[in-house]
Amino acid sequence: SASDFVRIVEVGPRDGLQNEAAEVSTATKIALIDRLSACGFPVVEATSFVSPRWVPQMADAAAVLGGIARRDGALYPVLVPNEKGLERALAAGVREIAVFTAASDAFNRRNINCDIDESLRRLAPVVARAVADGLWVRGYISTVLGCPYQGRVPVNDVVRVVKALDAMGCAEISLGDTIGVGTAKKARAMLEACATEVPMARLAVHFHDTYGQALANVYACLEAGVRVVDASVAGLGGCPYAQGASGNLASEDLVYQLHGLGMNTGVELDALCDTARWINAELSREPASKLARIANER
Ligand code: HMG
Ligand code: MG
C-alpha cells in the first residue's frame, strides 16, 4: 500500500561529491547518476548551481545535467542558493530545484554568507519564480538537531523555518541533521513538532551518520509517519562548511532496513551495492557502508 512506500531521495551525486577533496571528473558524475537511475531511485539529486568559488566540486553542474540519461518519472533536483543559481539551472533545463537554509544563524553565515532571516528574504523570490515557472521546489533546513558552531538548536527554531519555507511554496521540506549528532527520541520529537505545521507527507528526513545514529533515527521517524528519506550511495557525503560532518546515511543500508521492514522503495538492492562498490573504487575509498563491505567480501 502507499503507506508502505518510502521515497528515497538519493543525494550522493550532490551531498556526496560536493565534499570530495580530489577532483571527480564530469564523466564519473554522469556515470554515477545514470547507475543510480538504473537502480530505480525515484529522485536523484544531481548537482548544485552554487558559487564555484565556494564549492568548486560542483562547477560542472550544467555539463553534468546535460550528460545524464533521465529515466521516465524520476526527478533530478539541483541545489540553488539564489537568483543567479536559478538562472543557471533554468538555462540547463532543470525542472526540480532545492533551496537551502538552516535553523542556526551561525551555520548559515558560514555556508551561505548570511543569517536565517536574510536567507529567507533572498529565497522568497527564487521560490516564487520557480513555482510560477512550474518547477518542483524542495526546501532544506540544516542543523535541525545541532549546529557545529552554535551547539544546541531549539526545536522552535526549526519549526519557524519550516513555516517560512512552507509559506514560500516549497512542496517538500527536508530536515537535515548536518553533523549527525541527533538521536532517535530527539529526531522524532523534532519531526513531530514540524508536522504540526506542515503535513507529514511533505516532510523528509536527512541524516548524516557521524555518530552512527542515522538508521535508528530513520526508524523512529518512520514510526512517526515520515515516508521520504534522504540517503547517499556508499555513505558519501558531508558539508564543506560543517567541520567534522561525515557521510550521509548510506542508501544501501537504508534500503536493506526498509525492505526488511516489508516496505517498498523501488530500488534494486544488488544493483545499488554494485554501484556503491564502483563509486568507492572510482574515488579510491574504503567502503563506509556495512553493505558495501559485505559486498566486497563476496
Ligand atoms: P556570496 O559570496 O555572499 O555571494 O556567496 P555573492 O552574491 O556576493 O557572489 C559572490 C560571487 O559568486 C560573485 O562572483 C557571484 O557572481 C558568484 P564574482 O562577481 O565575485 O566573480 N555567484 C555565483 N556563481 C555561480 N552560481 C551561483 C552564484 N551565486 C553567486 N549561484 C552564496 C553566497 C550563497 C552564493 C555562496 O555562499 C554559496 O554558493 N554557498 C553554497 C554553499 C554550499 O553549496 N554548501 C553545501 C550545500 S548545503 C548542504 O550540504 C546541507 C544539506 O545537505 C542538508 C544538511 O545536511 O544539512 C542540503
Ligand atoms: Mg547533507
Automatic annotation (TrEMBL):
Pyruvate carboxyltransferase domain: residues covered: 6-273
Signal sequence range: none
Pathway info: Metabolic intermediate metabolism; (S)-3-hydroxy-3-methylglutaryl-CoA degradation; acetoacetate from (S)-3-hydroxy-3-methylglutaryl-CoA: step 1/1
Enzyme class at the top of the EC tree: lyase
Entry EC number(s): 4.1.3.4
Lineage top rank: taxon: Bacteria
Family: Belongs to the HMG-CoA lyase family.
UniProt protein name: hydroxymethylglutaryl-CoA lyase
Upper lineage: Bacteria, Pseudomonadati, Pseudomonadota, Gammaproteobacteria, Lysobacterales
